[in-house]
């Protein structure tokens, strides 16, 4: 059972090729500038601000000065990146809000100023200015969702049919596509066989994404699905892309007088842990922000000091014929069997 890999993290150290502009000892910046870090993050969910403030605290403890900015629009964030790079920091950490096209031109300044760039959580694959990527194993997250549902519903043994509806994350987030596509690789055979039945017929990412990951944007659609397709039929299963969206979906299902379905989540939010204890949300996949933030801080420290950061993936994230070295943290499935252990 592949699910077991979610319950233990393995540190794999492998070599990586040094990249242009990353850890270059010839930088002509004085030490006070090199010890500065620019961080540009979205503010779409509370978790981003928690990550940002945790990163600031850890960096300041290491003697760095930190300029952190948040934005809710890709155009605004691109301008923030441009302004941050003009100050020639020792490193830029970018949690991209939009698609690559917003950042290609402004990140060219990183090459010009010889500033290493670490993509945080969301990969940027169309700019050769990106030095490293720090994230969770996004394919493993999608795989974990699919395999958990497969096991919980006993699909391999032929159980069903179960009615299912699908939701996906924000349209401009590459991670959302990875999560959804990998999950659907596992679920599609059961949809074809009739063990899973999507009464709405809405099965593509373009049909089911939740705009900008804003949970309230899921409310009109779940209400419409319930009123159109489930007035006289049970909704047995819901693929939810994160915990906030799962909360909105569950509230509407409850308001419609229906029992909670088997439903997924992502992020390991405290509210999700409570719903798991109460038996309404089935599971979540926890992305321990402390683990990712601490790993990214170590990467920042290494590139600023001109040393090679630890990485464990040199094959997945490709930009043409070039690979962006990455460190991928291991997510963890949390359900009623381990929620009280994980959520201490």
Describe the structure.
A six-stranded parallel beta sheet has the order 2-1-3-4-5-13, sandwiched between helices. The chain has twelve helices and 14 strands. It has 344 residues and is of the alpha/beta class. Helix content is 40%, strand content 16%.
Task: Give a brief description.
The chain has helices at residues 31-34, 46-61, 74-86, 104-113, 138-152, 174-193, 205-208, 219-229, 243-255, 270-278, 289-305, 339-342; strands at residues 36-42, 65-71, 91-94, 117-120, 130-136, 162-166, 196-197, 237-239, 262-263, 284-286, 318-319, 322-323, 326-329, 332-334.
Percentage of residues in DSSP E strands: 15-25%
Number of β-strand runs: 14
Task: Report the sheet with the most strands, covering strand number, pairing sense and barrel closure.
Answer: 6 strands, parallel
Q: List the helices and strands in order.
A: HEHEHEHEEHEHEHHEHEHEHEEEEH
Mean pLDDT: 89
Question: Which class best fits the helix and strand makeup?
Answer: alpha/beta
Give the low-confidence spans. Answer: 1-29
Shape category: elongated
Count of helical regions: 12
Distance between the termini: 26 Å
Helix percent reads 25-40%
**Whole-number radius of gyration?**
21 Å
The main sheet orders its strands as 2-1-3-4-5-13
Detail the topology: elements first, then pairings.
Layout: H1 31-34, E1 36-42, H2 46-61, E2 65-71, H3 74-86, E3 91-94, H4 104-113, E4 117-120, E5 130-136, H5 138-152, E6 162-166, H6 174-193, E7 196-197, H7 205-208, H8 219-229, E8 237-239, H9 243-255, E9 262-263, H10 270-278, E10 284-286, H11 289-305, E11 318-319, E12 322-323, E13 326-329, E14 332-334, H12 339-342
Parallel strand pairs: 1-2, 1-3, 3-4, 4-5, 5-13, 6-7, 6-8, 8-9
Antiparallel strand pairs: 10-14, 11-12
Helix pairs in contact: 2-11, 3-4, 5-6, 8-9
